[in-house]
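[RESIDUES AND BACKBONE]
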Amino acid sequence: MPTFDFFYDPVPFQYRVDPMTGLTTHRVWMKRTDQLGRLVAYVDIDQLKTVNDFHSLHAGDAVVRGLANRLDVYRRQHEHLYRLGGDEFLLVHSRNLPVEAARARSKALRQLWLEPFAFEGTGIQITAGIVVTIVDDLNLETFWEKLRDLMLQNKKQGRNQLLFA
C-alpha cells in the first residue's frame, strides 16, 4: 500500500499527470516509499530524435502517446506505469512477481512496438531499449541514476535491446 495519498500528495496536480500521455509522472514515482524490492521495466524509445527530424515533432509526440497507450493497455491491474519524461517510461511490477515471470513479461513488451504507429496516413516503426531490474535503494534519486546508467549500457549494445540487471 502506498504511503502517500494521491489527492493530498505534496506534488501539485499539474505535476502528477503528464499532459501529453495522461500517465502519472516521475515526480509521483519519486515520492513513493513502497518501491524497495519491486521489479521495474524501464523503457526508452530508440532514436526518437530521428522520428522528430524525419517526420516532425508532431509525429514524435504521436509515437510517445501511442506507446503510452499501448503500455497502459499492457499494464496489469496491480502494476504502475509512469512517464519519466521525453521518451522514457517505467513499468513497476506487482511486488510478488517472480523473476522468470518478469523476464517473460519484459520480452513480451517488445511486441508493443512491432506494429507501426499511425501518423497522418503513414506508419512509423520504432524500437525501444528495456532495462529490467529490482529497486535496490530507498533513495530513488540514486536508483534513478543507476537506471539511466544501465540504459546507457543497454543502448551501447544496439537498438531494441533487453537488459536484465
Notes: The chain has one domain: 19-164. Residues 1-6 have pLDDT under 50 and may be disordered. The longest helix spans residues 57-74. Residues 19-164 form a domain with the Alpha-Beta Plaits fold (CATH 3.30.70.270).
